[in-house]
User: Fold these one by one.
Assistant:
Number 1:
Amino acid sequence: MKSHDNNLITLRDVGMTYDGREVLRHVSAAVRHGDFVAITGPNGGGKTTLLRIVLGLLRPTSGSVDYCGGCTPAIGYLPQKNSVDSHFPITVSEVVATGLLGRSTGSKCSDAARVEEYLELVDMAAYASRPIGRLSGGQLQRTLLARALVSRPSLIVMDEPLSYLDKHFEARLYDILEGLRNRATILLVSHEMNTIDQMATHHWIVDKTLHQCTSTRHWVDGCDHKHD
Ligand code: ADP
């Protein structure tokens, strides 16, 4: 696969094996600055594993992941809610503030203002001092969303962001994504594709291998399995 200068991420022949069991095979793809990649596929197909490899949290068994310029960009990560220990004694605003660790806006005061701004964005300002163990699933999901976005990262990686959200906030999330897609690169895993499908520039189906669809029209009726 050719490497393009404007590729933010280049995956080359990535493979992943857990305990001798292959979960990803020959995954090659490129993500360019400003792309919005919608990722779907069956449970256990390797979507989360692929995201964690892209994030540098997992090292692939084979192949490579390269970032433009050789260094990882600022990434905002929304993990699956069930990967977070909600018994940890930390409040909503403290969780959101961890999104600024190493990425301070310059002063404590402006960091606090930024946290407040993102709590408001996700309708969680009223719960700022509540311990996360006393939140509903949707409230925790919104808190994690604010943490992922608070540093205004150039790359946003979301794993099932719609989980636990009610219809009202689902609509808000689509508005938020709409606002982000002009200024960030987005990788988003979801089972619910109706609206996201319209916003995405690229579609990946991950089922051990990666199938890339070039247009929503090919979404159901077979992808063209294009690798560039
Ligand atoms: P998806 O996100 O598409 O549901 P995952 O990437 O979470 O898929 O998982 C892919 C496969 O790898 C599954 O069969 C899962 O059980 C397995 N798996 C994921 N993480 C681990 C791990 N840390 N150790 C062993 N197997 C794992």
Number 2:
Amino acid sequence: MSSGKKIFLANFWRRVKTTVVSLAILQSVTTLSVSAQTDTESVVTISYTELLANVKENRVQKIDLESNGLAAEAVLKDGGRRVRVDLIARDGNTELMKALRENGVDTAVKAPQQPTLIWQLVSTFFVPMLLIFILLMVLRRLSNAPGGPGQTLSFGKTKARFSPEAKTGIMFEDVAGIDTAKEELQEVVTFLKQPDRFTAVGAKIPKGVLLIGPPGTGKTLLAKAIAGEAGVPFFSLSGSEFVEMFVGVGASRVRDLFQKAKDNAPCIIFIDEIDAVGRQRGSGIGGGNDEREQTLNQMLTEMDGFQGNSGVIVVAATNRPDVLDSALLRPGRFDRQITVDYPDYKGRQEILKVHARNKKLEENVSLESVARLTPGFAGADLANLLNEAAILAARRYKEAIGELEIADAIDRITIGLTMKPMLDSSKKRLVAYHEVGHALVMTLLKNASLLDKITIVPRSGGIGGFAKGVPDEEYGLESRSQILDTITMMLGGRAAEEVVFGDAEITTGASGDFQQVARLTRLMVTQFGMSDLGLGALESESGEVFLGRNMMPQNDYSVKLGDRIDRQIRQIAQNCYYTAKRLIEENRDLCDRLVDILLDVETLDGEEFRKIVAEYTKIPEKKTASVKF
Ligand code: ADP
Ligand code: ZN
């Protein structure tokens, strides 16, 4: 059970309990009033003992016993005063009966006294009605409780979080490394600040801006910065929040949100993950999703409904523009699309500077080399990197973040947490040979990357060790020989296992390597036109079926060609594997020496590794620039 649900149930029970209590009070109030009613007939209630004494002293003229034996009404001889007595029927009131008989009191039995008609009506109708009323109140209160299932009752009433952030406090200077996007958005800020300048010359103000880019690249940050720069309120919610369990709620949420935004104009509405609502209608497995379509339609209607310049600008973010419904992208809707991509070297440097502002770095740490070592990192990863490094520095009782902490934080983010070193065992030896295989092949091939580090300290996620190269900024434009050497390097681990331990002893340790090899070889044949099958793309990387469009696999080739593709792929991998094996076999002594050293020190950096290799053989000159860290 989720904690939210638990809290809801606890509240519910508390309320039910208070209801029970208030009902009990009400009922005792009514019974009290009933006895008060009887009292007004000036009948004095006396005690049993008193009555018994009266009977025994022969002062009772007449007595009416109620048939249930619980009460009696007596008429006293002096002045015909009426008294009432509550009896206990347990013993059949034998003593009283005996005394009555002995004194010859006129005794009659009658039905128990009934409350008057009004009170009967009250207790039969009024109390149940009160009960219903109270239940209704409780339900209403529940329905207003935040997080309760009351949304069913209040039909998509705005949640409190729809209230805007008045000041995001984020400025453009906090967003770094994505300057083109910033420039384009500068215009939107001006729209919000001085709308008259644009309307005066008849320019239409944009209604929607779509930010396209992978997660963590700063889309949310950008949207907040627009609001911050223009000094307008910022409404935000995510697409998946729109799509709710209950039919109709999604659409009314949208209506609500836009209404609130219009009341607060000028302002920014930010919708994260818009693909969750704005996906191509009627697509995906099992056809469309009614609820989502209603929500989307409502959003389109709202955006169309903006009169001229309402001052509301919708900023949406997605990393899947390909699955968006084309209706969303039409003019007058999200007609402005801005790509926010992974930052390049320069961009990473800028982002690191922003996040290093509030951190203490040792003087010799250069953000330029950190930027060089982190291609493919998004802004969020870089922020995380510096934070991890700061945590490591604190844990090591250091005053400032040093190079070592940054290097460790990079490994931690890209590969995994460090685990305890392995005990000396045959397994450790095998891992050492596997990694030396990778590292040696990498070092001996001209077009593979430059070795950065080799280690046999295990990492979380079942990683026994790793050998990694210095990342190359020029990724994305790789030559055939670079790809082939990379594949050979990836197969170096298994090659070493086989050469050293024999065919029967090879392990599952290479499965990750094979997956990467399979992907690369397939790309070479089917997309890069780098095989005997010639030029041309035979496949495009297939999108996930569940995410809209792309229901059909995009293979436009015959079974026969498919066969040839498979053979080509195997051929490439085979050739690379032979190369790797040959390199290991030719350098067996070197391999053994490297493994002995690695078993001893557990981690070697590229420089140290190359020094040992150079004692045995010539290392080819690399094209990749070396980064000294
Ligand atoms: P997205 O919305 O694209 O998934 P966010 O805007 O939520 O990414 O980014 C998450 C965090 O990462 C930000 O709060 C910020 O700390 C950091 N970040 C991301 N991109 C940048 C950037 N370009 N400049 C500075 N910080 C960034
Ligand atoms: Zn491997």
